[in-house]
Amino acid sequence: MFSLMTAHALLVVIVVVSITLMLVRPRGIGEVYWIGAGVLLLLLLRLIPLRLAGHAAAKGMDVYLFLTGMMLLSELAREQGVFDWLASAAVRHARGSYARLFFLVYTVGTVVTILMSNDATAVVLTPAILFAVRAAKVEPLPYLFVCAFIANAASFVLPISNPANLVLFHDQTPPLGRWLSWFAVPSLLAIAVTFVVLRWIFREQLRASIAHTPEDHLLTAHGKLVVAGLAATAVVLLIASGLNWTLGLPTCLTAVVVTAIVTLKTRSNPLPLLREISWSTLALVAGLFIMVAAVEPIGALEFTQRALAWANAAAPSSGPLAAGFAVGVANNFVNNLPLGLIVGSAVRAVHVHGLIASAVLIGVDLGPNLSITGSLATILWLIALRREKLEVGFWSFLRIGAIAMPIALLFSIGGAVAMHWCFGAP
User: Fold this and answer.
1) DSSP 229-251
2) Is 335 helix (H, G, I), strand (E, B) or coil?
């Protein structure tokens, strides 16, 4: 139908334009429609075979199951007031201090991200924090930025903390013990450094005192049951990770069981809960899998493989730093999910292990703190704010991200390098 050169050029244009429109969202049209239109165009123009597209979409099954389970648990927790309870508890324990509230919101965001994924922090915790700080008549932006930044900074403490972790490692996710030996110190450094930088950036706003204390949002008996279910889910996932199982199916099954128990106990209809789940997110991720499969044969994968091979052959400190910063910045041009798919394929293809693989994952997870286009979680955070009639512009986010992200990334990768030198891990 087309010459090889024309087909390759057309394919690249369609993929780049689709991802750009996904990030920009002209006329407020949802991300999934732009990616879906791009995939449909690739198929109609026969730039990707239908069989290859189907195989690429099927590769993401573990990610779809994981996302479905986490979204179901998040909606259940939202419905039963768990996030409202957490947000109001943070305001109550701040005891009138903006700075103390900042720390408490950061702590809550860290825990939610680690145990329920960064998407839960972006989609569900953010509106709850906004509601709580508005009720307390507090300037919301510092606390909303906390939700956005911790959603990425704490997203590699555990494999379950970020769907991008599953995308990058696919079916080769390290067992929990090895994961913690690789990422415990780098992730703690990322969390701590990001807090210090944000605390410094918002130092003027945080000098004020909270003049109004809103009513407490008490946790109901059903809410306590949900919290117990969330704790049980975290235990199941930690065990699954420790046994080196894929995490999608255990997440989804546990979420279904917890939801069934709660709905039976409350005698409620689960269908409204299911309707609140963002099913379009699954279609979006599937579309990105297909687009990555389309560009892999035309050199994207080969170029990434050569770059990783070069980084692997470089000095023990400069190689990981170069790989981590290159991936971290690149996230913000194409989003970390499609980039994670390409880089993950390259990591497996050239058998890169150790420091370089760790630096790549840190870059994929932490790099999106540079701009609002960097990760799915940040995009979802932005959508959550728009629903509440709040706008955070590209440059407003970038002014903060350009300070916070590079410093945190440098310390985090530096921590991985130091662990390697001191203990030989990874």
Assistant:
1) HHHHHHHHHHHHHHTT--SHHHH
2) coil
In terms of C-beta density within 10 A (0-12 exposed, 13-18 middle, 19 or more buried), how is residue 39 classed? buried
288 versus 402: the higher-pLDDT residue is 402
- For residue 60, the number of C-alpha atoms closer than 13 Å in the C-beta half-sphere is 27
d(Cα 129, Cα 108) in Å, to the nearest integer? 10
CB–CB of 292/57 below 8 Å?
no
Most distant pair of Cα atoms in the chain: their distance = 69
Most confident of 190-194, 236-240, 310-314, 317-321: 190-194
pLDDT value, residue 66: 85
Per residue in 148-192, pLDDT (tens digit) is 999 999 999 998 898 888 888 876 778 888 889 899 999 999 999
pTM for this structure?
Answer: 0.85
Condensed to tens digits (0 to 9), the pLDDT of residues 230-279 reads 888 888 888 887 777 777 899 899 999 999 999 999 888 888 888 878 88
Whole-angstrom distance, CA of residue 129 vs CA of residue 334: 29
CB-based contact 371:404 (threshold 8 Å): no
For 65, the token pair is: 């199951």
Integer CA distances (angstroms), 154 to 59, 123, 158, in order = 26, 16, 9
CA dist list (Å): 321 to 178, 411, 414: 21, 10, 8
For helices 176-201 and 221-242, angle between their N-to-C axes, nearest 10 degrees: 130
Angle between helices 336-349 and 300-313 (to 10 degrees): 60
Which residue matches tokens 């440098």? 410
Whole-angstrom distance, CA of residue 159 vs CA of residue 173: 8
CA angle 89, 94, 99 (to 5 degrees): 135
Cα angle 380-122-136, degrees, rounded to a multiple of 5: 120
DSSP per residue over 4-64, as a string?
Answer: HHHHHHHHHHHHHHHHHHHHH-GGG--HHHHHHHHHHHHHHTTSS-HHHHHHHHHTTHHHH
DSSP string, 168-199: HHGGGPPPHHHHHHHHHHHHHHHHHHHHHHHH
Contact 341, 331 (CB under 8 A): no
- Contact call for residues 207 and 98 (beta carbons, < 8 A): yes
